[in-house]
Fold this sequence. Notes:
By secondary structure, this protein is mainly β. The chain contains 1 helix and 35 strands. The chain has one helix at about 1-20; strands at about 20-25, 30-35, 40-45, 55, 60-65, 80-85, 90-95, 100, 105, 115-120, 130-135, 145-150, 165-170, 175-180, 185-190, 195-200, 215, 220-225, 230-235, 240, 250-255, 260-265, 270-275, 285, 300-305, 310-315, 325-330, 335, 355, 360-365, 370-375, 380, 400-405, 410-415, 420-430. It has a 6-stranded mixed sheet, with no helix packed on it. It has a 4-stranded antiparallel sheet with strand order 12-35-34-33, with no helix packed on it. The radius of gyration is 31 Å and the shape is elongated.
Amino acid sequence: xxxxxxxxxxxxxxxxxxxxxxxxxxxxxxxxxxxxxxxxxxxxxxxxxxxxxxxxxxxxxxxxxxxxxxxxxxxxxxxxxxxxxxxxxxxxxxxxxxxxxxxxxxxxxxxxxxxxxxxxxxxxxxxxxxxxxxxxxxxxxxxxxxxxxxxxxxxxxxxxxxxxxxxxxxxxxxxxxxxxxxxxxxxxxxxxxxxxxxxxxxxxxxxxxxxxxxxxxxxxxxxxxxxxxxxxxxxxxxxxxxxxxxxxxxxxxxxxxxxxxxxxxxxxxxxxxxxxxxxxxxxxxxxxxxxxxxxxxxxxxxxxxxxxxxxxxxxxxxxxxxxxxxxxxxxxxxxxxxxxxxxxxxxxxxxxxxxxxxxxxxxxxxxxxxxxxxxxxxxxxxxxxxxxxxxxxxxxxxxxxxxxxxxxxxxxxxxxxxxxxxxxxxxxxxxxx
Length: 433
C-alpha cells in the first residue's frame, strides 16, 4: 500500500513539473504560468543613491516598479546596470536572442513609462520560451512641487471702489469672490478650462458688512457686520439678517461639518459660542482667553490622521506682537494657543491666511513673499522646499485664497490701480488624481 502511495505522489509531481502551474482566473478561463520559463527577480542599479524595487506580474508577464523613479531619472537609464535578473531558464534579449549578462550596462530608455523592452526566458532544455516586458515608471513631475496655472483674472471694471478685505471661497463647484459690498462674482470651476465670471449685485447687506468674515456652512454663506449682526444667504446674492444669531457677535471663527463657531459678547464678557443647523441659535461656551485674535481671522477646518475634525486659526497681529500664534480646537469651544519658547515661530504678517495642506500647516501674508510651514503647529520655519507660491505674485498686498475639496489652491491676487487681477490654480503634484 505504501509503495503505491509513493508512486502516485511521484506521478503527481511529474505532472506539475511537466505542465507548469495553472492559475484560475474565472470559471471559464485559466492562465498558465510555466515554471520552466519563470522570472523570479529583477533589479537595476541605484537611482540617486536609492534602490527601487521591481515587481513581476506573472499573469501578464510584465516587470515593473510600483514606486516611480524621481523626475530626471530618465537621463540615467540610457546606460545603467541590470544588477539582478533571476529566472528558471536562460535570459535573452534582441532579435538574435543574445544572452543577458547580469551586471552589464544597458539602454533601458525604451521602457520608460511603457512596456517598451522585451526579454525572452528559454527553458533549460530549449523546448519552451516566454517573453516578459519591462516597464520602468518615472515621475513626469516632481511630486513634492506644486503645478500652478494662471487663469483669466477679473477685469478691471469689477475692481472699482473695491474693499481691502477680499474673500474667496468655494461653494457648490463655484468659486465665489467678494470684493466689495455690492458685488458678487461667481465662476463655475467644475471645468476650469472653460470657466467664466458672472457678476451679481448683492442685496440685503449693510454698509458695514465685513466681507472677509464670510464662511460657508451647511450649504449657506454667513457673514457678519461691524456692528455685530449676522447675515446669511443661500446663493450669495440675496442676503437676510439672521435675527436669532445677530447682536454682539465679535467674530465668526470656523465652520465645522456640524457647527458654526464664533465669539459673542455676553453680559459684558467675550465668550465662544456655536450653533448647529438644527438649533439655529448660539450656545454660549467658554470665556475667550487673553490674546485670542478677533480681527482679520483666517481659519481652516481639517480632518486629522485619527479621523477627528479640528480647526486652526490665526488673526491679524497687534502692533506689539512679535509673532503670529496659531490657535487650535476640536470642538470650537476649547481653544489652545500653539505657543513656543523657541525662536522657530511665525513672524507677524499682515492679512494672514492659514491652511492645512498635505499634512502641513501653512501661513502666508504680507506681500506674498513666501510661506511659513509647520508639521504640528508649534515649530515654524519659512518654506524653502519645492512647494512654493507661483512666480509673479510677490509684492502684492491684497489677495484672497481658498482650497477646494480636490486639493486645488485658488489664489486671487488683486492688482494695483487699474491693473487686472491674477487668478492662479495650483496643486501639489503628488495629490493629482
